[in-house]
Amino acid sequence: MRLPMDIMDRFALFTVFDMAAVGLLFGLWFIIGLWVEHAPKSKPSTSQLMASYRKEWMKQMVTREPRVFDAQILSALRQGTAFFASTCMIALGGTLALIGNADQLAGVAEDITAANYPAIVWEIKLVMLALFLTNAFLKFVWSNRLFGYCAVLMAAVPNDPDDDKAYHRASQAAEINITAAKGFNRGLRSIYFALASAAWLLGPLALALAACVTFIVVWRREFASNSRKILLDGYV
Q1: Three-state SS letters, 138-173
Q2: Would you call 7 helix, strand, or coil by DSSP?
Q3: What's the rounded Cα separation, in Å, for the pair 98 and 59?
Q4: Which DSSP helix (H) or strand (E) runs through 74?
């Protein structure tokens, strides 16, 4: 009977503004992910534009000889996912180390924020950061795995464009490639919002501001960047 009371006591250490800021962070993270992946056809996101180019890539691969170029591109994509997965592991290890030394963190945080909170408050704030990093790690690992599947499918595409299975296999490879890229992008967004969640150490206002700035940055890169304008040129 005491355990629920302990949990309630810990939540009582946070204000309504803290809860609102955390809700805003997760809300914006969910909204931007949904918006990017399901943008209207009249204004596709950069990720959706890249998906169409991935399909075109696989179509061009059918008649390309040799396919060393395609293998090099896919290898670079896998290396990118492996790099970010390793980075997330390092960051997650550092975060867990901070959670294990929350008393020292509390002393530093008190000097910055002039707020005297028990160590459990800082631990909970770091746990949220760890959750975003864990999600990012899992997305990158799965993306790496899917790029591996894509490599196998690409190898199964017949060299003869007149073969009935050639473009069907290429289409399958494209869909797996797109799914892998989707996981990679989700991992990146988790990293962005993990950085935003670190602002909670400075207070709820800082967290809300960081969440809004992160949302705007991700939105701009997907819907208002120069790279998107370039991709739109000739897009069908």
Answers
A1: HHHHHHHHHHHHHHHHHHHCCCCCCCCCHHHHHHHH
A2: helix
A3: 49
A4: helix 68-100
Q: What is the C-alpha separation between 81 and 188, in angstroms, rounded?
A: 10
Contacts of 109 (CB under 8 A, 6+ apart): 115, 117, 122, 201
* 232 token code pair: 């739109």
Helix (H) or strand (E) holding 38: none
Cβ(61)–Cβ(154) below 8 Å: yes
pTM of the model: 0.89
Distance CA 146, CA 181 (A): 9
Tokens 């992946």 sit at which residue? 37
Please tell me the distance from the alpha carbon of residue 64 to that of residue 159, in angstroms, as a whole number: 8
Angle (CA) 176 59 177, round 5°: 15
pLDDT tens by residue, the chain, 236 residues: 444 446 556 666 778 999 999 999 999 999 999 999 999 989 999 999 999 999 999 999 999 888 899 999 999 999 999 999 999 999 999 988 888 776 666 655 555 555 566 677 888 889 999 999 999 999 999 999 999 999 999 999 998 888 889 999 999 999 999 999 999 999 999 999 999 999 998 889 999 999 999 999 999 999 999 999 999 987 65
110 Cβ contact partners less than 8 Å away, ≥ 6 residues apart = 116, 117
DSSP for residue 12: T
